[in-house]
TrEMBL record:
Catalyzes the stereoinversion of LL-2,6-diaminopimelate (L,L-DAP) to meso-diaminopimelate (meso-DAP), a precursor of L-lysine and an essential component of the bacterial peptidoglycan. The record marks H170, E218 as: Could be important to modulate the pK values of the two catalytic cysteine residues. GO terms for cellular component: cytosol. The keyword Cytoplasm applies. Its EC number is 5.1.1.7. The active site is at C82, C82 (proton donor), C227 (proton acceptor). It catalyses: (2S,6S)-2,6-diaminopimelate = meso-2,6-diaminopimelate. This is Diaminopimelate epimerase. One of its GO terms (molecular function) is diaminopimelate epimerase activity. The gene is dapF. Substrate binds at N24, Q56, N73, G83, N84, N168, N201, E218, R219, G228, T229. It comes from Parvularcula maris. InterPro entries: DAP_epimerase_AS (IPR018510), DAP_epimerase_DapF (IPR001653). The keyword Cytoplasm applies.
Amino acid sequence: MTETPAPLESLEGCPFFVMDGAGNDFVVVDLRGGGAMTEAAARHLGDRRGPFGCDQIIGIANRDDRPAMLIWNADGSEAGACGNAARCVAELLMTERSAEALSFGSPSGTLDARRMGERIAVDMGRPRLRWDEIPLSQELPQTLQLPVDGGVLERYGLTPPVGVSMGNPHAVFFVANAEAEPLASFGPLIEHDALFPDRVNCSVASIHGGAIRLRTWERGVGLTMACGTAACASLVAAHRIELLGRSAKVVADGGELFIAWDEETGRVEMAGPTRMHRRGVF
């Protein structure tokens, strides 16, 4: 009999699912029947040198008589939002209930999800745009040109980023060619910039034919194949500086997402694919 690795002892008996949304990959753990996620367990599951490896670790727990999504980054830190994981959780719950739409909890509030053909769509809520909502460490009259470290901007030929929170903080840099930017070099510097007390997700975005080409350095994770909240933040940021309308396709390294920012409600909806790779019980 194979022994359970010590970091996962608190999860023995819990079902797990290895999934991805547009390449953004997760280990989803069903905690509704018991078990507890620990920081050590999250780090073990997130470690790509181990038997799993992923961007985020997701828990499904019962909160207020309904399912709720919990989120840990690969480094064991907790996160407030993860759009692609929300779509994966929605796929699991809708399949479980034979439903075409449902609501569930998350650290950032209630999420509404629905099927759109082969895609899963999630209402990501209203973007938060004030300095104290993102949050930033200093009061600013606007968040369209964030005063990050000028030395980093000069060294990498960047203009100040646009700030947006989608339940987690984002700094979006608009560039001529997102694929050519050395994001792995300056992403960590922006993530830990003193302007961001909770660290920040750093993205580079370029506009081509009405679509956004997006690459993201995710706080607590690093370079990721896709980031759902970054896709939402990039569309919001592009509209705020009048580069795009209120909807667009976002092309990440791992796949395509479709983002719409409703003018009437102010809410952002994200749609895209999900994929199951593996399932089992710890």
